[in-house]
Amino acid sequence: MCTMHKLGLQIWPSPDVMVLMSTKGTLYKVAMLSTALEDALAYCTVEEFAAGFKKRLALQLRGIKQTRGSSGEGDWNIKRKPGNHCKSYREG
Predict the structure, then answer these.
(1) E strands within 6-79?
(2) pLDDT in tens, 76-92
């Protein structure tokens, strides 16, 4: 792709932009945009994960992604047990 870009062939996004956007942290960084999910979070420590994940799971299905890779390895979907749960993200 870099070779094609250097030859002047139109590629979107450009390779340098792809490198910047290829981390899972990007999902968190754009959470405030209207096209993103407002409850996208990044947990950098075990303590942050323990404190925040249960609260988020109370609302809906959650996806967990490790910080590397983009082919689906290390991705998990977690569902809550049936019962009374928050109806909106703000309630959590």
Answers:
(1) 62-65, 75-78
(2) 777 777 766 666 655 55
Domain ranges of the chain: 2-91
Sign of CA dihedral 71, 79, 56, 45: negative
For the whole prediction, is pTM greater than 0.70?
no
**Shortest CA distance to 74 belongs to which of 24, 30, 17?**
24
Phi, psi of 13 (to 5 degrees): -75, 165
The closest of 89, 39, 83 to 59, measured between CA atoms, is 89
| pLDDT number for residue 23 | 63
| 11 residue type, one letter | I
| 42 token code pair | 């990044």
pLDDT digits (tens, 9 = 90+) for 16-52: 776 666 566 677 777 777 777 677 777 888 898 888 8
